[in-house]
């Protein structure tokens, strides 16, 4: 049970990539008054949390409605995770999600979606659809724990970026990308094994 919680927590931490999103949060709120920034951070994290929670609970019904199997979602999700991991290891000029522009107060886009609750995170929580109460509690608990990490990282985002510096932040993001790529490959192989068993 503990191992499952830790694995779920690590996977959610990697796909939401809080440290990698620090520069995006800092730049998106550059024009926002300082006294409002913490409120925006809490709001965006709450929106991302509830979106992921919604996908976690209704993911199985969504799959059934779209006539998708768990196997195809696992393989497709692994490909998305791998592409995100590659962008973390080899950064693009526009960042992981492209150039989002500046100015005004951010609302939902780009901070809640897709920075935190992006395609890889949504695909990942869809895989957490469970039948047992124990697994549901573990997955929700891991999501709550990760949401607390978001707040711990994004609330002091400006100070964190200043103290660690861009080089350390970039190195940390590349390390997370490397770990995420290995997890994506493992998820892909698991999907292939399930597909072969279903033949």
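-> sequence recovered:
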């Amino acid at each position: 049970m503990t191992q499952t919680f830790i694995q779920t927590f690590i996977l959610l931490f990697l796909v939401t990539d809080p440290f990698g999103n620090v520069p995006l949060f800092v730049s998106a709120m550059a024009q926002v008054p300082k006294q409002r920034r913490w409120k925006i951070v809490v709001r965006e994290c709450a929106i991302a949390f509830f979106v992921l929670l919604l996908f976690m609970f209704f993911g199985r019904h969504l799959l059934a409605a779209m006539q998708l199997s768990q196997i195809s979602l696992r393989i497709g999700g692994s490909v998305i995770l791998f592409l995100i991991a590659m962008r973390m290891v080899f950064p693009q000029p526009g960042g992981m999600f492209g150039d989002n522009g500046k100015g005004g107060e951010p609302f939902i886009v780009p901070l809640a979606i897709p920075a935190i609750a992006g395609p890889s995170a949504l695909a990942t929580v869809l895989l957490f659809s469970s039948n047992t109460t124990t697994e549901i509690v573990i997955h929700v608990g891991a999501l709550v724990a990760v949401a607390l990490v978001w707040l711990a990282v994004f609330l002091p985002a400006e100070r964190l970026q200043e103290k660690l510096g861009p080089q350390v932040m970039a190195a940390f993001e590349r390390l997370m990308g490397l770990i995420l790529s290995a997890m994506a490959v493992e998820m892909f192989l698991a999907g292939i094994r399930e597909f072969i068993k279903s033949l």
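Residues 122 and 144 are 15 Å apart (CA to CA).
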